[in-house]
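dumping this here before i forget
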Amino acid sequence: MATTLEHFWTTDELWHVPAGWRQGRGAWGGIVAGQVITAATAAVHANLGVEFPVRSAHIAMLGAVPTGDVFVSCLMLRAGSATAAVEVTLRAEGELLTRATVVFGKPRQPTPVSTVVESEVVIPDPANAAFVPLGPPISPEFTSNLRFAPVAGFPYSQSNPMAASGWISLPATATDRPTAAMLAALVDGWWTAALTGFGPEVMETGLPPLATLDFLATFPSSEAEIEQSLGAHPWQVGLYHQGQVLAGTQGYLTEVSSLHAPDGRLLVSNTQVVAVGRGL
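structure:
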């Protein structure tokens, strides 16, 4: 099978946002995050002639990215011997839609705190994962391209705390690599944990608008560690997602989520500011 997401991202200045990956009025935020990191990675290689591992991506999602042609611009903010930083902007029809900063860093000399392993996380047996089909009208368009096996935290269940977890994956035969761009995309693939706080009445009254305003992803595992944890066929099992709303006020929620390998290794950590409801 051809790659599922990698071939949609480009290192060119013009990105053709594919059909079939919408979320609401615009493209799914995950595919936007992947494009940002893809462009920034290419910019570092073009300017420095070497590849630095991605350490973080901070993305301000200023407007819905439409299907079709979007202009990509990269600006080197730092080009040091050990670290680099790139600003990436996405524009369509003259409007600034996304502004991001992606930070890169070479491995450093070992110290007593060079490697920190996350405290033990309970990961359910992936052999028990039951993948269910998703897609319109139940869920956004992009979800029909991915696989989901919910474990806990379902939309409209009026949960407290608001949390959700389960397995997420590309199609089992996909050949995409678990790069930083891919991990940033998939950590945004699960439904926002805020949905678990609503009751079933919203099925009749309608769900208020929800939008991610701010997206921060960090990558605490090296490429070698990821390959060791996921093996040669990562999408046969998938990645374990955990998400929870920490707190919020006046309709702006702070939500944290993560993706883990089946062996418990933390692959990506994500914090988002989610706006819920219409402005006063």
